[in-house]
Design goal:
By secondary structure, the chain is an alpha+beta fold. The chain folds into two domains: 31 residues, no CATH class; 71 residues, no CATH class. Helix content is 33%, strand content 20%. It has a three-stranded antiparallel sheet. Strand 2 and strand 3 form a beta hairpin. The radius of gyration is 16 Å and the shape is globular.
């Protein structure tokens, strides 16, 4: 059974704890609604001005950053993590976070 450990109303991040009886390990899980990130990315895409040097690509929620950290094995925003994040953002499953489909 999952137990809610923490809820951050600012980010919407929920932290849960549970014990996995199969592996015998204690597990911390994070959950966050992605819809606000998708809506923010759409808003940024609608304001895109290609004459500018910096283009807003999208917004990545904390829970996704933590997931990519776990998957690639590197701390967020290191060179290795950034390379992994670019590959992920170019995948179709994360296309809603990059609404202009800007190839990174």
């Amino acid at each position: 059974m999952k137990r809610l450990l923490d809820y951050d109303p600012l980010t919407g991040m929920k932290t849960y704890f549970h014990h996995d009886n199969v592996t015998g390990k204690n597990v911390i899980e994070y959950e966050q609604d992605m819809e606000s990130a998708v809506e923010r990315s759409k808003f940024l895409a609608s304001k895109l001005n290609k004459k500018e040097d910096w283009w807003p690509i999208g917004h990545i929620k904390d829970v996704t950053i933590l997931q990519w950290d776990k998957e690639c094995g590197h701390k967020p925003y290191t060179k290795e993590w950034n390379e992994y994040a670019v590959k992920q953002l170019n995948k179709s499953e994360y296309s809603r976070l990059n609404p202009n489909r800007i190839k990174l």
